[in-house]
Inverse folding.
C-alpha cells in the first residue's frame, strides 16, 4: 500500500469504480478464461500503476507496456479503466472495495457506509471477470485487537454470501503499522488468518503484502508455506524503502517465488514498488526475477 504522496494513490482509484451499469456491453474477459501462463514462469504476475512512476505514460500506455511484458492485469483500478484494460488483453486483478486504511471495517460506525460500496464493488468485479475485491481493516482507534476481529468478522459474515454467489474473493490486506501505517490493525498474518477462520468462506482470503510483512514479522517463506490456504493475492516491493528489489534489498524474491510456485498457488502476484531508475527497464527485470 502506498503512502498518500505516491503518484498513483489508491484513494484516487476508490472514486473510479462508478456504477455497475458502466460495464454493460463491454464483453470483458472472464478471469477463468484468461491464460494462466501468458509469460514465463509458474506464477501469474500483475502490476500496480505506481511501477510506472516517472514514465509519463497514460493508462493506455501503461496497459500496452504491461501486456508487452506478459502481465495478466492491473491492481486497484476502477470501472472507468476496464475498457482500456480489455483493449490490451488485461484484467482488473484487484478492485477497490470502498473501505479505507484509517476508516475500515473494524469500526462498526463505518459499516453502513462501506457495505453498499463493497456490494457494488463485488458486482463490478464479477461483471469484469476480476477475481478480487480489496478489504481494509482500518485503524485500531481505541479498539482492542479482539474487538476489531469481532467487528470485521461481523461485517464480512454479512457480505460473504454475495461474494460466494458472484465468485469474487474478498482480500483483506496485511499492512505494516511500524513504518507506513501506524495504528492499522491487520498488521500480522496470525490476526488475518484468525479473521479468515471466523468468516469461514472460500471467498475470504488475505492480500499478503511481502514488503509489509517483512517489516512486521520477517520469516516470509515459512509464513507463506504455513498459511497459503488463506492467501488470495500477493504484493511485492523491496525492503527497506519500498523500492525495486535488487542486491541492496533484504528480500530474496526468486527464493520467495520458488516457494510460492511450489505450493501450486493459482492467484496473482502483483508488483507494488516505486522504481528509482528507468521504470520500464526496472519492471522487466523485476518480472524476470519472479519467473520461476
Amino acid at each position: 500500500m502506498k503512502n498518500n504522496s505516491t503518484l498513483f494513490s489508491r484513494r484516487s482509484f476508490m472514486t473510479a469504480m462508478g456504477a455497475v451499469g458502466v460495464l454493460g456491453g463491454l464483453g470483458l474477459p472472464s478471469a477463468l478464461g484468461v491464460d494462466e501462463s501468458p509469460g514465463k514462469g509458474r506464477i501469474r504476475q500483475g502490476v500496480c500503476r505506481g511501477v510506472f512512476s516517472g514514465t509519463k505514460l497514460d493508462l493506455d500506455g501503461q496497459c500496452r507496456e504491461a501486456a508487452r511484458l506478459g502481465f495478466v492485469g492491473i491492481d486497484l483500478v476502477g470501472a472507468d479503466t476496464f475498457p482500456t484494460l480489455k483493449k490490451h488483453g488485461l484484467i482488473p486483478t484487484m478492485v477497490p472495495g470502498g473501505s479505507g486504511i484509517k476508516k475500515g471495517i473494524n469500526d462498526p460506525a463505518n459499516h453502513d457506509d462501506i457495505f453498499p460500496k463493497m456490494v457494488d464493488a463485488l458486482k463490478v468485479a464479477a461483471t469484469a471477470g476480476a477475481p478480487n475485491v480489496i478489504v481494509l481493516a482500518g485503524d485500531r482507534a481505541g479498539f482492542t485487537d479482539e474487538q476489531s476481529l469481532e467487528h470485521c468478522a461481523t461485517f464480512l459474515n454479512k457480505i460473504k454470501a454475495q461474494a460466494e454467489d458472484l465468485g469474487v474473493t474478498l482480500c483483506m490486506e496485511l499492512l505494516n503499522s511500524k513504518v507506513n501505517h501506524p495504528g492499522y490493525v491487520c498488521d500480522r498474518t496470525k490476526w488475518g488468518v484468525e479473521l479468515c477462520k471466523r468468516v469461514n468462506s472460500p471467498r475470504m482470503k488475505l492480500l499478503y503484502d511481502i514488503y509489509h510483512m517483512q517489516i512486521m514479522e520477517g520469516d516470509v517463506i515459512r509464513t507463506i508455506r504455513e498459511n497459503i490456504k488463506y492467501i488470495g493475492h500477493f504484493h511485492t516491493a523491496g525492503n527497506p524503502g519500498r523500492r525495486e528489489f535488487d542486491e541492496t534489498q533484504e528480500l530474496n524474491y526468486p527464493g520467495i517465488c520458488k516457494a510460492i510456485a511450489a505450493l501450486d498457488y493459482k492467484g496473482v502476484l502483483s508488483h507494488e514498488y516505486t522504481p528509482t531508475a528507468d521504470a520500464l527497464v526496472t519492471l522487466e527485470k523485476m518480472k524476470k526475477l519472479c519467473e520461476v
